[in-house]
Design goal:
The protein has 198 residues and is mainly alpha-helical. It has 4 helices and 3 strands.
Amino acid sequence: FRRGGGGRRPLVRDKIRDGEIHFEGFVSLLQQQMSRLLQRHSDKLVSLRQRLRHPRDRLRENAQRLDQLEIRLTQALAGRLQQYRNNLQNLNTRLQHQHPNARLGRLRDQLADLEHRLQIAVKMLLQRKQNQWREASQLLNAVSPLNTLERGYAIVTDEHRQAVKSVCQVTPGDTVSAHLSDGTMRCEVLNINDKRTL
């Protein structure tokens, strides 16, 4: 009778070890997935540095994507942790018949430690990416055309909404639009002074 009971204990221990190995593997896999997702997001921020057409709108979109990413990661983490809690509870029920209290206590401690370490890793990773996003936002704001307008400059476009960069693009009598920081003015070209002819 003792020999049969002893045969069941190794089987339960093996399942516990398998559960620990799977959990640690999940932690590593989840961190890799988070790194890939956040790297992809970081690449998009790099692309934003090269696009200054509508910086505020693009920054707002990236902030929303970062929030969605954080929600998805939190949900995935919660689902996985709940699954492992359920597995541990099932093992706990089976182990109660054999009274391995010391082993069960260590498993609880290990699970709590892994949860804590994983939460810290996720928090640090997200914080690092948020800092990178803030730096990119500050850089885009520094070179944004909107900041240029707020300093008193204007962006002039023709009737086809193309930017007017030279007096050669317009003639007297043309109508252009001057875009300021707080609105747009429709203007008529009365005279042209070409510095190249002076």
